[in-house]
Every structure is written in structure tokens, then in C-alpha cells.
Amino acid sequence: MKKITFFIAVALLMVSFTAKAQIVDGILYTPINRNGLGERVPLVGVMASAVIMPPSGDLVIPAQVGGQNVVAIGPAVFSKNKNITSVTIPSTVKDIMPSAFSECDKLTKVNLSEGLLRISALAFTNCDNLTEITIPNSVFAIGQTSFAGCKKLATVNMGNSVESIDAKAFLNCPIKKITLPSTLTMIGFAAFAQTDATEWFNLTADQLKPTTLTEVTAKMDNPVTDTSNGSSPDWRDFNDLAFGMTAVDTSKKLIVPAAYQHLYETNTPWSYFFASPSTDLKDTKVSNFLHFNSTNKTVTVLGAKGNMSVFDLSGKVILSQKITEDNATVSLNNLNTGIYIFKVGKNIQKLMIK
């Protein structure tokens, strides 16, 4: 009782010094103005900054308090709450700050809204009963250890704008399948790994165990990018131990854009998976640059030059030929009936050969 009285006294003192601070449903909301030059997550409004009376059951964060948008959930505000069972975050919230909901043992459901930009470090770590999370398409960053230790988190629906998944973000989560968006340029150390270690701050490579993932769909065009026009490759920051794997495991499937399968197969951590090309044309740079003539079983390459590779659906190169002139015609007599993926430069098209 003394502890609650103390917090109320502190909150009231804060309110007396900050006219815009308000207490709503036992939660203190205080002004924030973080809108500096280059700030990727501008925060102008109010944020949930302290708990006066601990909430329970279904927690719904309001979109506005005192006419101001609620733009952030402050650090450790609801950490170790033992009674919250679900959380709904409005679209006005841009940032869930470090440890905001960490160790909420009874939390089973989290509803995040489009508009959220960042899930910060430790935000939901060790939420033992959280089973599923959908990352909004607006989120670009998932922080370090943000969902680590959520031992029932088996389903993660990844948003299509995520650029970075930081170290240990999903450590010790029993995820089976994941789709990584085309925007992704960074996966940190042990992001999807497992470990028996009880202390994660100084986690080392020899403490890691392989990921529980059995299927990864990687929509990135290329795990390697060249920013110097071919003179030297600039490796994207995909950590070798992101999945805790150090050897090939053919039971773990990697689905990648067909045009770049060979790069995935030869660069870690992707080479530890069994790679196969995506058959979803939405995952590739598709263009209708081929004209198939079924009478004489030839294909005419329209307006594309370079090395032509033809893949079957297992990813095996069936035919390779250099295209040096416009509207070149290529014989397909050696191809059996089936579906094939054709690539010339950055042009990709799927054809059915009859």
C-alpha cells in the first residue's frame, strides 16, 4: 500500500510540474517531442510513461489523451505485469520502447496497428504465453531480443517493410515458418537461434543451437549487393549465425527468387539450408520478354540480352545460352513438357512448355 501511495505521490508531483501530463485509467501519459533532423521515428505527442494502478485483463491504449496523440509506449512501463492478458496498440503509436511489455507472463495476445514504426529492444521478451504476433507493414525495425524467450511464440507474420531484425530478436522462439520481406537488409546474431544458456547478454557462438525453423521464404532479390559498379562486393549484414546453424541441414527449406538462387547457395547463412526457387511470380522481377512458339518449340527473346538461364522448379539449371542480339530465337527441343523459369539479366518469366 505504501508503494502504491508513493507512486501516486510522484505522479501527482510530475503532473503539477507538467501541465499536459495526465493520468488515464491508472496510466500516466507525459508529453514527448522527439522530432530532430534525421529522426526516423518522430515522436510528437504524449507517451505512456508510468503505471499508477497496474492494469489487468485486456489493456487498450487510447489513441489520444488530452487532445494529444499517444505516440509511444515508454520504457518498461508494463514490464513484469502479471495480470495483463491482451494488449491493443492504436495506429498513433510509432514506437514501443525497450522492455515496455517484457515478462508479462499472462499476455497471450498483442494487437499492433499499421502506423507503428519500431519495436525496440526487449519490448516483449519472456512473454511466456504469447503464441502469435503480426508485425504491421509499417514497421521497419525489430530490436535486439525484442521477442526472445517467448517460448510459445510459434507464428510470426512478418510485415513487408521490415529492414532490420536485430540480434537475438526471436531467440528461443519455436517458430516453424517465416517469410522475410524484400526490404530486409540486416539480420543480427542469433536472431532466430536457440540456446540452453540462461544469460543472453554475453551469448557466444558456442552456446547456440540451430533454429526451429523448417521453412524460410526469403524475398530479398539478392543477399549480396554491389555498390561500386562491380569492382568490389558490399556484403549486406546477414550474420552467419543468425539461425544458429553451422552446417548444412537439408531438412530446412529455403525458398528464394530463382534469379539469385546461386548466390543464396554459396553464401552463409543461407547456404546451410536446402534452397529452391520461388514459383510465386510476385517474388521476382517479372517481365513478359519471351514469345513461345509451340509449333516448332522455340522461344524468341524480346529486347533482352545477356546470359539466359532456364531453371526447372527444383532450381536446377536445365539450359544456358548467351543472348547477343535482339529478338534471338532459341530452340527448346531438349526440354520436356513442364514449367520452367527463364532468366536473362534481370528479366524473369515463367513458361509452360507443352
What is the element layout, followed by pairings?
Elements: H1 2-17, E1 22-24, E2 27-34, E3 43-51, E4 57-60, E5 64-65, E6 68-73, E7 84-88, E8 95-96, E9 109-111, E10 118-119, E11 132-134, E12 141-142, E13 155-157, E14 164-165, E15 177-180, E16 186-187, E17 194-195, E18 208-209, E19 215-218, E20 224-225, E21 234-235, E22 237-238, E23 253-256, H2 261-265, E24 274-277, E25 290-293, E26 298-301, E27 306-311, E28 317-323, E29 328-331, E30 338-344, E31 347-353
Parallel strand pairs: 3-6, 4-7, 6-8, 7-9, 8-10, 10-12, 11-13, 12-14, 14-16, 15-19, 16-22, 19-23, 23-24
Antiparallel strand pairs: 1-2, 2-3, 5-6, 17-18, 20-21, 25-26, 26-29, 27-28, 27-30, 30-31
| Largest sheet entry | 11 strands, mixed
Radius of gyration: 25 Å
Report the end-to-end length measured between terminal Cα atoms: 79 Å
CATH topology name of the largest domain: Leucine-rich repeat, LRR (right-handed beta-alpha superhelix)
Contiguous low-pLDDT stretches (5 residues minimum) are: 1-19, 226-235, 281-286
- Output the number of helix runs: 2
CATH class division of the largest domain? Alpha Beta
What percentage of residues falls in helices of 4 or more residues? under 10%
| CATH homologous superfamily (4th level) name of the largest domain | Ribonuclease Inhibitor
The amount of beta strand, in percent, is 25-35%
Structural class: mainly beta
Shape verdict? elongated
